[in-house]
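User: I'm writing a tutorial on reading structure tokens. Could you give me a worked example: one chain, its sequence, then its tokens, then a sentence or two explaining what the tokens reveal?
Assistant: Sure. Here is the example chain.
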Amino acid sequence: MTTDTQAAPGRRPPEQNPPEERESFAGHFLRSLWAANTVTVTVLAIVLAIVIGGILIIVSDPDVLDTYTYFFARPSDALTASWDLVADAYANLFKGAILDPATVSGWLHGENGWQAVLAPISETLTYAAPLVFTGLSVALAFRGGLFNIGAQGQATVGVILAALAGFLIPLPPVIHLLVALIAGALGGAAWGFVPGILKARTGAHEVITTIMLNYVALYFLTWIIVQNGVHEPSRTDAISRPVRSSAQLPHLLGGDLRVHAGIVLAVLATWAVAWLLNRSTIGFELRAVGANPDAARTAGISVTRTYVILMAVAGALAGLGGANMVLGSTATALTPLVAAQIGFDGILVALLGRVKPWGVALAALLFGALQAGGNRMQSYSSISLELVTVLQALIVIFIAAPALVKAIFRLRAARAERLGTSMAKGW
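And here are its predicted structure tokens:
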């Protein structure tokens, strides 16, 4: 006979499972942080781009390269020169994009005003505002299964109509601004409607039609600038009459800083697109068509109507981005380069933002910061502004290749696989 505390002869005592050790909060946080989630991959992609950008800065400076000719004799010279060059370049990038500590010290000691402190942020927001609109335009088309290469052309037409409304129609201040913005949005919507209806009715590929319309818009801009009533009579170069002050977006921080109400409109547009995609019936239909057009058609969704609405709304967003360029503080008149490359940059912003509205807004802020900081970096560090474009391209390359980031930093494979799948479906 056995008791509760003694095992019977020939029998093994029952195995008791060891108590499970609860993972600490810090351990769980670190384990999750080093998983291949969206935030980790994005941050590490930026880090990789900065590191490679630093290498490019070093190899592009002949004085620093000279120190490497005697590297094994005195390696400290090469390492010190390289560090000083890269640190100075990125310090100026930060000062031009976010904050310059010298201006803060000067403001506290009465040597400069608060405007100098906020100038870097002002420039970042100024460059970011139009990119939010074009990025949302491309991202919205992506979610519907279309590749809107034509954001550049749509923004160009938006620039033209917004400027024409801005100096040809005399109206009271607030009404005049609204009319100019609506004109820009309608111009972009019309330019997006064309490839949308061609895609829906004839099956014409939107990439081909939008690329062709980009060139049409560019040459139309070049032509209309020099027409009577549009061209500035006192100038001999290709420039239009200036937009009336009543149609210009108001400055948010006074006339000395360039940031204007366009950034407020960009935030509102981001919220509107997020609501459209996630809360509305049209957004559900749009996402269904983007996921599987045949299944959506079988479910009773009009794929034809969805394509047309999708491209028209995407074009309107790009048109508003173009209107920001001429109604804001970037320019006040039409020139052949007034739209810059905001449409093509919008493609990069959409990719970096994972084609999600708020992600696009954050990506636009990053690109705006790189542009604003790059201007100072070029002026104070003698670094080519093209390096900023290289940084942007590197960031997008690493974002688009999560497997590469995972391999370099040895991130957890399971989470990385789900990330790659989600990215593919997001397009």
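What the tokens reveal: Residues 127-381 form a domain with the ABC transporter involved in vitamin B12 uptake, BtuC fold (CATH 1.10.3470). Residues 195 and 209 are 6 Å apart (CA to CA).
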